# Entry
Amino acid sequence: MNDLILITGASSGIGYEMARLLSARKFNLVLVARSATKLEALKRELEARDGIQVHIFPCDLGQPQAAQTLYEKVRQRGLDVTMLVNNAGVGVYGSFSDTDLEAELSMIQLNVSTVVALSKYFLQDMLVQKRGRILNVASLLSFLPFPYYSVYSATKSFVLAFSETLTAELEGTGVVVTTLCPGPVDTAFNTEAMWKTNAYKANQPVSPAAVAEQGVQLLLTGTGKKIVGFNNWFISQLPRITPSAIMMKIKKNLASQRSS
Ligand SMILES: NC(=O)c1ccc[n+]([C@@H]2O[C@H](COP(=O)([O-])OP(=O)(O)OC[C@H]3O[C@@H](n4cnc5c(N)ncnc54)[C@H](OP(=O)(O)O)[C@@H]3O)[C@@H](O)[C@H]2O)c1
# Structure
């Protein structure tokens, strides 16, 4: 059976670059994001360039029923997804007292509930086939909850915990779950306010193509979790040797906006 890979958040950034890399390796793709125009353009380009099949499903995965509707539409078209990349995600930055509740609840829906629901639906089919792979995109912040990213950090801690426990539960079933944990990446994810924080000066964002390459390797042949870049791995280890109160002060400073 040929593999068919579904990628959420394929219209830009890491998901877009993963789609391009997987297409170049001749995988057929199912691409999901809100922007129909961008997905259509990518479909046309990849089908012409690589001779693969690309199926697109524009939808808003920040809506409560979106994962179920997407799964049903994919099945109705007779598509057997063998690999799932839960990549779509957004971030909300700012003091929790000031940030928009609606934006945060929608982020929890997209970053958490949709990841759980899509994993639940597609996993059942993978278990029947006794093969499949799920890659969840978490973050460096999964290990290091940052002030001013309070709800976002919590969503990514959730993704890591969910993903790692699933990995263990599914041992021996033929289904492998992996977790990609990038540090800062130069994508549309970052708002102007985020770019002005000390963290982005101290830890320069890397290209989405570089992160996508790591993601593709992890998806196709990897196991467990992958923190992208040695510097980010080192940063993820700091809580082990730094008292938590000091660590939180450092993180608060890093997440604050530069004065100049
Ligand atoms: N950039 C970073 O610094 C960084 C660091 C660590 C982890 N990450 C994680 O990496 C993942 C990918 O982010 P990125 O950096 O590649 O950002 P990006 O360029 O903004 O891409 C996000 C993708 O998600 C899609 N998306 C957003 N909201 C959606 C919704 N409601 N329904 C369906 N699709 C939606 C976007 O497409 P549409 O707008 O067309 O819907 C886009 O394709 C996220 O999970 C993010 O948390 C990013």
Notes: The longest helix spans residues 101-129. The chain is about 50% helix and 15% strand. Strands lie at 4-8, 28-33, 54-58, 83-86, 132-137, 175-181, 225-227. The chain has one domain: 4-191+205-229.
